[in-house]
Amino acid sequence: MATFGTSTNQQRGDFQRAERERERIERENREREEQNQLSEEQKEEIKEAFHLFDLDKDLKIDYHELKVAMKALGFELPKAEILSILQTHGAPSEPPNPNVPHHPRLLLSFRDFQSVMTQRILARDPREEILRAFELFDEGGKGKINLNDLRRVARELGEGLEEEELAAMIEEFDMDSDGAINREEFLEICMQ
After folding, report:
1. CA dist list (Å): 113 to 1, 63, 100, 122, 189
2. Are 105 and 92 in contact (CB under 8 A)?
């Protein structure tokens, strides 16, 4: 009778291992499909942000490194949300010395960071992204981009555009003829 019980427990354990492996493979396939939806530029931005803010170069990032890496990618999250990401996807750090008491921190590997960022980037609302770009142009929060704003951004980006070229840009996209590009006009330009 003991042989039968052992065999059943072994089968149950084998089934559970097989189920975990199947789930892992499904998760990896899902992640691969999601990553294929990103542009090469977006994939490179994720990689650069991770490696730039992995300050100790251990191929894992902690809370502070995650916070600034996400901010660099345009995601400014509250502390609770960052902690939630670490609790869901992170792994505890290993003790530097097993003989010394250690308070483990949660760390996120590059693969997990890539997965989290891919999901967040794919979930972005393009209108929200466009309006965030608008805010970069609209110095002072006037609700409009005027010639001075365009001149400043061109200078900051090192674009050698002539005054006539900048004025022509404003004129081409200024639908209400007020000498500036408002949010709606900017959205229309970018959503074409």
Report:
1. 49, 12, 29, 14, 33
2. yes
107 forms beta bridges with 91
Distance CA(139)–CA(181), nearest Å, equals 13
Please state the length of the chain: 192
What pLDDT tens digit does each residue of the chain (192 aa) get? Answer: 455 556 777 778 777 777 777 776 666 556 566 666 888 999 999 999 999 999 989 999 999 999 999 999 989 899 999 999 999 999 988 877 777 776 778 999 999 999 999 999 998 888 888 888 899 899 999 999 999 999 999 888 888 889 999 999 999 999 999 999 999 999 988 887
Helix spans in 63-146 (H): 63-72, 79-89, 110-123, 126-137
Contacts of 146 (CB under 8 A, 6+ apart): 170, 179, 180
Dist CA 134 CA 171 (whole Å) = 17
Say if residues 109 and 121 touch (Cβ distance below 8 Å).
Answer: no
Is 123 in contact with 75 (CB distance < 8 Å)?
A: no
Whether this model's pTM surpasses 0.85: no
123, HSE (Cβ side, Cα atoms, 13 Å):
8
Q: What is the DSSP letter of 142?
A: -
Q: Report the distance separating Cα 109 and Cα 115, nearest Å.
A: 10
